[in-house]
Amino acid sequence: DDVAGVVLFPDRRRMATNSKDGFLRVWDLKDGAILKEMDARGQAMRDVVLSQDGQLIASCDYGGYVIAWHGDTLTEVFRNQSGASSLDFSPDGATLATGSYGSTTLDIQIWNIILRRRIAIIGQNYTHSLAWMPDGTRLLSAGNPNVREWDSSTLKEVGCSDLWKGDTGSSCQCIAVNCNGTLVAYQTTDNHVRLWRPSDQRTIAIFQHSDSPCCISFSVDGKHILAGGKDKKILEW
């Protein structure tokens, strides 16, 4: 069925996919064979993330469940119904941040995967995307109407959120960080992709997309930005 999310393992030999048929699958990239298949709950899947070391996979579904599996065996290590629509692992893989954009659900929740319990709640409405900085000191959240920055030790907001806003009437929905944390790219609903530099908190470039972008990513070397839009096109800058 429709593929809702794709992540690549650090060994560059495997990938995992989330599908709207309710299955999480691990694939061999060389021959396209399915190595593992897991029926999460029969619910259509949404976001999927992989820890940096490839040891943990986490996914969320339209039923509101978040499930984490061991990357090699797909044995379940965590499960909770938190109403999440987006998620991301901290760099050390011990913490999972989940976000939601429904008006009746909790917003950003922070989970200790090892202890299997929630350790904090951050009050931001309508969270569409989450991204940890590579050093683990900051958590970025994209939502309505802007991107916000949170100190991971205190979970208090830091920086100036006004720098993260799109044009009037637009909102930020997708966010990506390059491998060393020196650049942040985020998409806005006014058909723009903005490049932001955390060191001096400045927008250093604005790219025009052909339609409203739906997803965004940096290339491995950090020299290119790729964004997919509603017009079925992928643009590269």
From TrEMBL:
The keyword Ubl conjugation does not apply. Pfam families: WD40 (PF00400). WD repeats lie at residues 1-37, 206-237. Signal peptide: none annotated. Keywords: WD repeat. Coiled coil: none annotated. SUPFAM superfamilies: Quinoprotein alcohol dehydrogenase-like (SSF50998). This is WD40 repeat-like protein. It comes from Rhizopogon vinicolor AM-OR11-026.
